[in-house]
Amino acid sequence: MSSRLQQLTANIESALGDKLGRLVSHVGELTIECSVANMLDVCLILRDHPSLKFEQLIDLCGVDYAEYGEGSWSGLRFATVYHFLSISLNQRVRLRVFAADDDFPVLPTLVDMWPVANWFERESFDLYGIMYEGHPDLRRLLTDYGFVGHPFRKDFPMIGNVEMRYDPEQQRVIYQPVTIDPRNNVPRVIRDEGFHHG
């Protein structure tokens, strides 16, 4: 671990204290984990503490851990991962927060702290179904208004649930149940064990 990363680790541990759930260093990057209950306090400290100054939220994304580790995952299912940048101190950190309820995942919104979170949270809601409590306009962003389900969830069917087409008789776009036959996406292994080079 570089001295710069060691210093950032010490600064994070000192600033967050008992609000820090876990701090993981991997390939030169730090990932902070905290509980939902401490999330807003942790984010405020990350943004405002003089030794951290993570003034910019670069990105956030939802994650579904349902099949993580080839099904060996036993933790909570849904998380949001946040990527922060300190321009003034030239440092980065990642924050991962798991939603406490797998059936109805909810995390607090960060729109009030970082307005850029608005569309990122909408995307995460649309694709994973993670709700962001306090979001000013939480609605779908990438899928259609009538779309059912959340397509990045591991249990969402690869062919979807409905298909859309133009019906010339009704002169409008209609939705109907999927009529595509499911495909086997497992690659076939071809072995020619009786083949001999002559």
From TrEMBL:
Question: What chemistry does it catalyse, as a reaction equation?
Answer: a quinone + NADH + 5 H(+)(in) = a quinol + NAD(+) + 4 H(+)(out)
- Origin: domain of life: Bacteria
Question: How does this chain sit within the bilayer?
Answer: Peripheral membrane protein
For this protein, the record's PROSITE patterns field holds: COMPLEX1_30K
Give compartment(s): Cell inner membrane
List GO molecular-function terms, semicolon-separated.
NADH dehydrogenase (quinone) (non-electrogenic) activity; NADH dehydrogenase (ubiquinone) activity; quinone binding
SUPFAM superfamilies from the entry? Nqo5-like
| Main location group | membrane
Specify the NADH:ubiquinone oxidoreductase 30kDa subunit domain's residue ranges: 33-160
Broad class of enzyme this protein falls into: translocase
Instruction: Tell me which EC number(s) this protein carries.
Output: 7.1.1.-
Recorded GO CC terms: plasma membrane
Keywords, comma-separated and alphabetical? Cell inner membrane, Cell membrane, Membrane, NAD, Oxidoreductase, Quinone, Translocase, Transport, Ubiquinone
| A Pfam family per the record | Complex1_30kDa
The UniProt entry's sequence similarity note says: Belongs to the complex I 30 kDa subunit family.
NCBIfam families membership? NuoC_fam (TIGR01961), PRK06074.1-1 (NF004730)
Q: Which PANTHER family match?
A: NADH DEHYDROGENASE [UBIQUINONE] IRON-SULFUR PROTEIN 3, MITOCHONDRIAL, NADH DEHYDROGENASE UBIQUINONE IRON-SULFUR PROTEIN 3
Quaternary organization: NDH-1 is composed of 14 different subunits. Subunits NuoB, C, D, E, F, and G constitute the peripheral sector of the complex.
Q: Report the protein's function.
A: NDH-1 shuttles electrons from NADH, via FMN and iron-sulfur (Fe-S) centers, to quinones in the respiratory chain. The immediate electron acceptor for the enzyme in this species is believed to be ubiquinone. Couples the redox reaction to proton translocation (for every two electrons transferred, four hydrogen ions are translocated across the cytoplasmic membrane), and thus conserves the redox energy in a proton gradient.
Q: Which HAMAP family match?
A: NDH1_NuoC
User: Could you tell me what this protein is called?
Assistant: NADH-quinone oxidoreductase subunit C
Q: Top-down, what is the taxonomic lineage of the species of origin?
A: Bacteria, Pseudomonadati, Pseudomonadota, Betaproteobacteria, Nitrosomonadales
The gene is nuoC
